[in-house]
């Protein structure tokens, strides 16, 4: 009886418990599935929305280089001395002073007249601070919009607490106001050179018609959402009552952690790399190659072995390193919010390289006195190069010093960077003051100073002998891609077979960026057939890195039209925008586009429209309009080409190039008009339907001649400024020839041939010109 009663009581309790479990499970399931719509798009909310939950990170961020990347000029943000200071450079008496709350400078303006300008913004904090002036502000601009900003070359050295003039590299003379390198020129324009990496969610908003800017940003500095992505969804979820983050959107931020390092590295790379922009709508978490085109290891920006030469901003170096291929990421060494190193001195390295005692951080390894400069890991494995006169930056390719490569192919090495100073007394006294940094020695040698080149060579050999003595048979000097690149660039035929093998090596053996550069150099060195063959091999593997596949697609631009159509047409639908972009341009330049019809032509046209969108990201640069004009010309859209050439001239009237290319297009149309109906139609379309074809052709020729006359003084200016550049001298020589000034043309072509005696086209042009002069009696 009692047992039956107990059983009757248990049933309701069991039912209640089961019901509760069902209800709770259902509620939890409903909570999980009742998330944000899959289509929800995050927006920028600003760092104030982050601080309440992330106070530790916020405190670390305050005062960091990201926090101080840019600001309004105020008493709190301006470091430089504006207490009525006179600063002189190039014969100009510049004055830095205050006008009430405003910071002012009296300096040379765009018209060459000394005048007063207000400093509106400060840029950076250490080791230098720069200052910016606003021009051409549209009267209808909103308070949150910025007009054209120009960055003054007069800058504040925050270490030495003094003003200095930031000269462009290799330009010792005074910059004239019409020079693009003048502080009022395009090379010193905030929007074109700096803005997107110093502010968050920047939109340039350049108007091609009015040539004005309406630039905006969500935050003036590099704030939380620059790295973590727009945070509105994250904030909404964090403030909600759900037990879960969202099943569609996760945390609502960029995925910067996890075993795969790609997310974090590609969040840093957009600003810490030398790249061009294909899509300005990037946000953290997006694939790098869908928005940016990373520059290859070109000879003017990297040394042959991939060491840094010009400003390349870390990422292109780091992806060459063993650290990258072993899964090391930025935050293993750097605090992501303060940006400081996580450990002092050599501990930055030994915190990971904890090998047996006595292996690395001891004299038996580095062969220098403990505590000396030579005993610091970074000085041997991450040597620095100084930019902007006061800003030393370390090479993040993290390599073993290779004086043996210095001896064989002339690349720098960390050992010589210190020990070359031992040769200073052997250098002529009048040169010594100019040899402050290792890069000063390298530059002088590259410009033909045999005395300094000999001193470097002696140092390299001495360092090589020291390494042989120290490490003996245990020393490792494996083959290096620098040897291949140096060989291709100097015409060594034995390098071709090595290059072909190297391009197809796996990434853990051969860095992708080095392989892509090797493939590109094969083509540039005149080995088109071999390069095309290698490109076809690369493109057979859809899993190859987009940078390598994009380079292979670009190489296919040198192939036959039929080959280009066969190989490149499928790539117009590639997942990577970078690959699609290069494939599209190569399809047009190869002539393959012109053979398409029907569905394939429509597909190609859509891809070409995307190229215009990509190029117009830089609509404030003439180069973007020139590139689109050239593409339009190649596909036979001459009206579009003319408009784009004219836009290029309007956007940068001081730039050489657009008028010459425009004139050449008109000349080609006139020359073809006798036999080509397409050329005849183009001339009629461009110069009006009235009048005879001969009259319209005459108008086209007159237009071309006027364009060349307008371009001539600009080419002359370039030839004067780049007196040691053979290509620039050659272009000026051709322009003089076309203008009818044959003696002046001969002088310029002779200069080009002397500067580059191995370039056959220069010597051939000079020979033909002299034959013409002799034949005409001049």
Automatic annotation (TrEMBL):
Entry-linked SUPFAM superfamilies: ARM repeat, Multiheme cytochromes, TPR-like
Domain of life: Bacteria
Pfam families reported for this sequence: Cytochrome_C554, HEAT_2
UniProt KW keywords: Signal, TPR repeat
Cytochrome c-552/4 domain span: 191-229
TPR repeats: 622-655, 726-759
Protein name, entry field: Cytochrome c-552/4 domain-containing protein
Classification of source organism: Bacteria, Pseudomonadati, Planctomycetota, Planctomycetia, Pirellulales
